[in-house]
Automatic annotation (TrEMBL):
Gene for this chain: lnt
Keyword list, A-Z: Acyltransferase, Cell membrane, Lipoprotein, Membrane, Transferase, Transmembrane, Transmembrane helix
NCBIfam families attached to this UniProt entry: lnt
A Pfam short name: LNT_N
GO cellular component: plasma membrane
UniProt-recorded name of the protein: Apolipoprotein N-acyltransferase
């Protein structure tokens, strides 16, 4: 490599690194949100660099890609705590996500305009929100959730986080053009600056209008319970029961110290199981071959009776727990609260299926409703195609054999209709949006998660940022109960009303306000952004087909 090529490589590396560092500084723990408006400027300038088109042998694509692999590894490194082998999926995810900033630069070189730049970026975000099951973490729009006042992020009720990302790219483009104007091209700067000013002013005015919307106070009291219990990939029965008992003790103490009745308590993902899943028998039931052992095979009626007995035991445990949650108040007992808890669910039908679920236990101890998690965690809860490979499917470790539920549910608690979701479902923005589209009567979202896997790292805060944007996108308060994570009450404007520190046990008494707005995002979904996603894919396909050798590294 010549000296010229070395200098070019160094400049490209420094330029790309500047963008990655600026993005990182907008992340949790640092929260320098104003940097979001300049973080893409180096990438936009890089796309205009004539050295990229020169056939000088500079491996610029490899440089850009490698820098962003490092950015995503650093931002999501907390995922490695979940399991000793998690570094493999972590590396794969970073390698996958880094493709999008590179493609942004590549395609922007062919379509250098503020609107096309914004469409390319959000088009890439739309693709990654759907491809390979989808993930919304680290979208550009999340960088503004800590912006004082929250005016600019209120446009998320139009097209979710995509809308905020679009605005940020428009402003970055204008600033990049300001640099170009200094170098002698003022006309383009005037155009892009005017456009950015219109978008900023319009978004700010719209946000201010949306923030003034009156929310109806609610008198329904929900107690969100959070702890910081260390979890293990394969926990034994004793540890599950120990965690259950600790949550029970904390909840009982909290209710004993309350001078008002509580309508429902919420426990995080899996914490209500206590080694005792909720088991269901369908009308069409096939007795599993392993039931009863090798010498004795249960009949269908015997197996149904066994399931009914496990349900009775489960209900007795719930009744006993609710009785302990019913202290006397000046001689009169408050009514027992409902329980919304994360719990394993097993359903026996033609085949046996197991779910990560949410149960709604009514004040009488009966299981009133069940929600089975719809969106499973790849590699954590399932491995693609694993059940189709006979040699491997018998060696799947516990926890990787989960099934996905088939739709949303709504739990009625007091004056609230709660839409439950689990784990990373708030980190895949479309899940809550689609569920609310199907069940528009829901007026609050209750999310249960176990983020202790991530050991208090930035991953937990990224998850909370996603939940804040979901709250705005749906205009529904988000009530989050977490183990080792974001136990928080978020209002329908995306503001965190109250939060429990990550490394502490605590609880939040919520009385979420009722917001009757049905957003454009919920009504029509992300199809306007999907147009940008389709264009992104089309431009990429045309580039590959038309000139597959251009700018090869």
């Amino acid at each position: 490599m010549s000296m010229t090529e070395k200098r070019s490589s160094r400049v490209i590396g420094i330029t790309t690194l500047a963008s990655a560092v600026l993005l990182y500084l907008t992340g949790p723990g640092i929260n320098l949100w104003p940097l979001a408006f300049v973080a893409l400027v180096p990438l936009i300038q890089l796309a205009r660099d004539e050295r990229l088109s020169a056939r000088s042998g500079v491996k610029w694509k490899r440089i850009v890609y490698s820098v962003f692999v490092g950015y995503y590894l650093a931002s999501l490194q907390g995922l490695r705590h979940a399991h000793p082998l998690m570094f493999v999926p972590l590396t794969a995810m970073a390698a996958y996500l880094a493709i999008y900033p590179l493609l942004f630069v590549v395609l922007l070189r062919r379509h250098d305009h503020p609107l096309t730049a914004a469409a390319l970026w959000v088009g890439g975000e739309w693709v990654r929100n759907y491809f390979a099951t989808g993930i919304s973490v680290l979208m550009l729009g999340h960088t503004l959730v800590d912006m004082p006042g929250g005016w600019l992020i209120q446009i998320a009720d139009l097209q979710g986080t995509y809308a905020v990302s679009f605005l940020i790219v428009i402003v970055n483009y204008a600033i990049a053009d300001a640099v170009s104007a200094y170098q002698g091209t003022p006309a383009r700067w005037i155009r892009s600056t005017s456009m950015a000013a219109v978008f900023l002013i319009t978004s700010g005015l719209y946000g201010n209008h949306r923030l003034s919307y009156p929310v109806t106070p609610s008198d329904t009291r929900i107690l969100l319970v959070g702890r910081d219990e260390q979890t293990e990939y394969q926990q034994d029965l004793g540890r599950e029961q120990e965690i259950f008992n600790r949550y029970a003790s904390q909840t009982i103490d909290a209710i004993a110290n309350s001078d008002v009745p509580i309508d429902a308590v919420v426990w995080p993902e899996s914490m209500f199981s206590g080694g005792q899943p909720w088991i269901i028998a369908d009308a069409e039931l096939t007795v599993p071959e392993e039931a009863g052992g090798e010498k004795f095979r249960f009949t269908e009626s015997q197996f149904r009776e066994i399931i009914a007995d496990t349900q009775r035991q489960f209900v007795r445990r719930s009744i006993n727990l609710q009785a302990a949650m019913t202290p006397l108040n000046e001689g009169d007992a408050f009514p027992p609260p409902s329980i919304i808890g994360g719990c394993g669910v097993v359903r026996y039908g033609r085949t046996a299926k197991q779910y990560s679920g949410v149960l709604h236990v009514d004040p009488s101890g009966q299981v009133e409703g069940v929600y089975a998690k719809n969106h499973l965690v790849m590699f954590g809860e399932y491995i693609p195609l694993i059940r189709s490979i006979p040699i491997l499917r018998d060696h799947v470790p516990p926890g990787l054999g989960l099934d996905a539920g088939d739709g949303p549910n709504v739990f009625n608690v007091g004056g609230l209709k709660l839409l439950p979701n689990l784990c990373i479902e708030t980190a895949v923005e479309r899940i809550a949006v689609n569920h609310l589209h199907e069940r528009p009567e829901a007026n609050a979202i209750v999310t249960l998660t176990n983020d202790a896997w991530f050991d208090h790292t930035a991953v937990v805060s990224h998850h909370l940022r996603c939940a804040q944007m979901v709250a705005i996108g749906t205009r529904r308060p988000v009530l989050s109960a977490a183990n080792g994570g974001p136990t928080a009450w978020i209002d329908s404007f995306g503001k965190i009303v109250e939060k429990v520190p990550l490394d502490e046990a605590g609880q939040i008494m919520t009385t979420p306000g009722l917001d009757d707005r049905r957003t454009l995002y919920v009504r029509v979904g992300s199809w306007p952004t999907a147009i940008a996603g389709g264009w992104f894919i089309a431009m990429l396909a045309m580039m590959i087909r038309r000139d597959p050798t251009r700018d090869q590294p």
